[in-house]
Amino acid sequence: MNILIVEDEALTVMYLKMLLKQMDYTEVKSVASGEKALELVDEWKPQLVFMDIQLAGKLDGIETTVQLKQKVECPVVYTTGYDNPEIMDRATRSGSAAYLIKPVERESIRTVLQTLFA
After folding, report:
1. How far is residue 115 CA from its own chain's centroid?
2. What tens digit of pLDDT does each residue of 26-82 get?
3. What sign for the dihedral angle of Cα 10, 13, 101, 40?
4. CATH superfamily, region 3-117
């Protein structure tokens, strides 16, 4: 399964990649900005996206999700430090599959993957 991580914090990217590898998901790419994510999905069709909300670049994760969903049909799981109700509502309206608060735990990712791909 192709998994895309859109995250501008290198430690978070390494942590998510490690968790996914431990669960035998090895086709994982990462980018730090929404703009890069939108470029990448044209050539490398992800089947799942982990999306931060605050990103490098001009687009935030929610706007990136809206544009990404026009290019490729795949679930988007937000991984963010924001637990603000307004942001959560905006994220939900963007068509996200799940909303995980950082630090993301292994079991949360496992549950999301089982729910989405069981």
Report:
1. 16
2. 999 999 999 999 999 989 999 999 999 999 999 999 999 999 999 999 999 999 998
3. positive
4. Response regulator (3.40.50.2300)
Alpha-carbon distance of 5 to 8, in angstroms, equals 9
Q: How far is CA 63 from CA 14, 41, 79, 94, 116, in A?
A: 24, 15, 15, 8, 22
In contact, 61 and 52? CB cutoff 8 Å: yes
Distance, CA of 16 to CA of 30 (rounded, Å): 10
- Locate 78 and state its tokens: 């937000």
8 A C-beta contact, residue 29 and residue 5 = yes
pLDDT score at 83: 87
Q: At residue 6, what are phi and psi to the nearest 5 degrees?
A: -110, 100
Rounded-to-integer distance, Cα 18 and Cα 37, Å: 20
Domain boundaries, the chain: 3-117
